[in-house]
Design goal:
single chain; 344 residues; mainly alpha; Rhopdopsin 7-helix transmembrane proteins; two-stranded antiparallel sheet; 13 helices; 2 strands
């Protein structure tokens, strides 16, 4: 997802090669954990739980992470081939566009979840009357549309580019001068930093500041577990993505100054930062299992259902499924049914 198609020549080639090997290991682990974990979350929230506003949020968040991790084999293969691109121009556009779209989608959803929690606490009566599953689905549709619009330049400008007889997935100049292309890349990086990190972070911090203030003012004696889960997901996202965004800004500065230290920082830091950012896509299912007893129970039962369904005799599949479903109670992902449409 870096915006430049070529990298500076590293002074410590063996160490840099080791970092890229480590990155491939992290990407592979993220792919395995992310597709499996998020796939199970999609199964649970989409088919095993009663539809609530919260399950709609977390279903869409799991879809974003699942799609993100499902496209990682292209990145893994490219790293293994020393960044040579062998999948053609269309897949280059699609891969980059999907990764950026799901990144925007995730952070937009986290901001929406935070706003939803804030409204549920600050304006509980209004939320009880107007907070519906249908409106949550509509909000998710609008958020995904916004994410797609924000990532549209990557679909337009990213392409398979030949450089010294080697094909890379990079930004194509088309009819742009080098100066115009450089300006475009700088704009995309700054826009991504602001709209995929800074602005959502400010919105989320403001929301939880209001929530904390309301809790202190009313001195509510209630469980903070649902709020802790959301806060953990939000904090994990921003901690994982912060180094990546900062190094993108450092890379912009390195292009301007051509400072060897900055380039070394980018060369050695970007594989680590990118691996950390990508690993975030498999963290949410782990957080749900570790922090939520209700979800942990459903996670276990749904996993058993998948395994048993794979080996059961065809004639007994329906009976097994019906029997298993009868043992699963329908709570929301982070709230009980009684709490989902009231204050969080």
């Amino acid at each position: 997802m870096s915006d430049n198609g070529t990298a500076s020549e590293p002074e410590h080639g063996s160490a840099l090669h080791g970092l890229h090997v480590l990155s491939m290991v992290v990407y592979s682990l993220t792919f395995l954990l992310g597709t499996t974990g998020n796939g199970l979350v999609i199964w649970i929230t989409g088919f095993k739980m009663k539809k609530t506003v919260n399950t709609v949020w977390f279903l869409n968040l799991a879809i974003a992470d699942f799609v993100f991790t499902a496209f990682l084999p292209f990145t893994i293969t490219t790293n293994a081939l020393r960044f040579r691109w062998v999948f053609g121009g269309f897949v280059c556009k699609l891969n980059t566009g999907v990764l950026v779209t799901t990144m925007y989608g995730s952070v937009f959803l986290l901001a929406a979840i935070s706003l939803d929690r804030c409204v549920s606490v600050v304006a509980a009566v209004w939320a009880h009357n107007f907070r519906t599953v249908r409106k949550a689905y509509l909000a998710c549709f609008l958020l995904w549309t916004a994410a797609l619009l924000m990532s549209s330049p990557y679909f337009a400008f990213r392409d398979a580019v030949e450089y010294h007889n080697v094909t890379y997935c990079a930004f194509r100049r088309h009819n742009y001068s080098p100066e115009a292309l450089s300006s475009t890349l700088k704009t995309l990086t700054l826009v991504r930093f602001l709209f995929a990190f800074v602005f959502p972070f400010l919105v989320i911090v403001s929301c939880y500041a209001l929530i904390a203030q309301r809790y202190r003012a009313t001195q509510r004696q209630r469980s903070y577990k649902p709020l802790r889960i959301v806060v953990a997901v939000v904090l994990t996202f921003f901690v994982c993505w912060l180094p990546f965004h900062l190094l993108q800004l450092v890379e912009l500065r390195a292009h301007v100054t051509d400072d060897s230290f900055l380039w070394m920082l980018v060369d050695f830091g970007m594989p680590i930062a990118t691996g950390l950012a990508f690993f975030n896509s498999c963290m949410n299912p782990i957080l749900y299992v570790c922090m939520c007893q209700d979800f942990r129970e459903k996670f276990r039962k749904s996993f058993l259902l998948v395994i048993e369904s794979a080996f059961v005799e065809e004639g007994t599949l329906y009976t097994l499924s019906a029997s298993r479903r009868s043992t699963v109670q329908m709570e929301s992902l982070v709230n009980g049914n009684k709490q989902d449409s009231t204050a969080g």
